[in-house]
């Protein structure tokens, strides 16, 4: 039968905290109750998320996750970013809650997506709508910190990972580890290894992307000193006009990180 709808039901420590956070992202409340059990239903256009409260719940140990399929990943990320800047004065890049940036995922057939990690520790994974019939995921999500997500969608060639060279390959691997699996420390080790062995023919744009992403991961780990150093190194790389255009997303991310650093 067609036209079914699935609404994720996710855990949290406080439905009030969840409700306040998602309002920042443009959601409205369609239902809220305290008794007999705390429960809230939220909606942003066709995107619906429901949450239930568990006393003593630890967001850091959450297994909650869901996929959001949208026609425009970049636009949704811009809307969420704008909401965060208006409410918090910055895009949240560290701690819980936080949001990653759209990046191509090697483990998701090169599809570009981003994640919102909400106050309940739930990973809301945003991917583009398929251009054709979706391919089935090869494995289910068991934990955001232990299992990669295989994308249920295909992508155009322009969105596929083009890992040419050691630094680019390190970046692609690190994105899988940190943005898909939540293993930030292993991603840091991968990037640090690549940065420790620069090569003369490294693409300067990729080098900037690696340094800015390393700064972002340092922020996740509350390592402000390393984040500051990586952003300074990225700023010292000379880019021509074409390279500056290709590095636009990384440079925008660097600006957000500087604001977060204060």
How confident is the prediction overall: mean pLDDT? 88
Number of strands: 9
Estimate the helix proportion, in percent.
Answer: 25-40%
Tell me the strand percentage band. Answer: 15-25%
Q: Any idea of the CATH topology of the largest domain?
A: 2,3-Dihydroxybiphenyl 1,2-Dioxygenase, domain 1
Overall geometry: elongated
Question: How many domains in all?
Answer: 2
Q: What is the radius of gyration computed over CA atoms, rounded to a whole number of angstroms?
A: 19 Å
Helices and strands: which structural class? alpha+beta
The named CATH superfamily of the largest domain: 2,3-Dihydroxybiphenyl 1,2-Dioxygenase, domain 1
CATH architecture of the largest domain: Roll
**CATH class of the largest domain, please?**
Alpha Beta
Distance between the termini: 53 Å
Description:
It comes from Catenuloplanes atrovinosus. This is VOC family protein. With 262 residues, the chain is an alpha+beta fold. It folds into two domains: 120 residues, 2,3-Dihydroxybiphenyl 1,2-Dioxygenase, domain 1 (Roll), CATH 3.10.180; 100 residues, Serine Threonine Protein Phosphatase 5, Tetratricopeptide repeat, CATH 1.25.40. Strands 5, 6, 7, 8 and 9 form a five-stranded mixed β-sheet that branches. It has a four-stranded mixed β-sheet with strand order 1-4-3-2, covered by helices on one side. Strand 3 and strand 4 form a beta hairpin. Helix 5 packs antiparallel against helix 6 and helix 6 packs antiparallel against helix 8. The longest helix has 17 residues. About 12% of the residues have low confidence.
């Amino acid at each position: 039968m067609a036209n079914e709808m699935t609404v994720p039901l996710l855990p949290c420590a406080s439905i009030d905290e969840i409700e306040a956070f998602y309002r920042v992202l443009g959601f409205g409340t369609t239902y809220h109750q305290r008794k007999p059990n705390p429960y809230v239903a939220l909606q942003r256009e066709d995107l619906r998320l429901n949450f239930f409260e568990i006393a003593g719940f630890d967001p850091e140990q959450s297994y909650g996750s869901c996929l959001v399929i949208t026609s425009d990943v970049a636009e949704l990320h811009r809307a969420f970013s704008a909401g965060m800047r208006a409410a918090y004065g910055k895009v949240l890049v560290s701690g819980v809650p936080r949001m990653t940036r759209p990046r191509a995922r090697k483990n998701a057939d090169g599809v570009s997506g981003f994640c919102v990690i909400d106050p309940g520790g739930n990973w809301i994974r945003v991917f583009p709508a398929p251009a054709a019939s979706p391919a089935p995921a090869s494995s289910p999500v068991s934990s955001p910190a232990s299992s990669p997500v295989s994308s249920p969608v295909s992508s155009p060639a322009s969105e596929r990972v083009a890992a040419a060279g050691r630094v680019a390959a390190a970046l692609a691997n690190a994105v899988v580890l940190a943005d898909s699996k939540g293993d930030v420390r292993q991603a840091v080790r991968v990037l640090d290894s690549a940065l420790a062995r620069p090569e003369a023919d490294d693409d300067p744009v990729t080098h900037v992307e690696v340094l800015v992403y390393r700064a972002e991961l340092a922020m996740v780990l509350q390592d402000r000193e390393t984040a500051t150093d990586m952003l300074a190194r990225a700023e010292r790389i000379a880019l021509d006009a074409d390279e500056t255009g290709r590095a636009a997303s990384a440079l925008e991310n660097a600006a957000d990180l500087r604001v977060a650093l204060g």
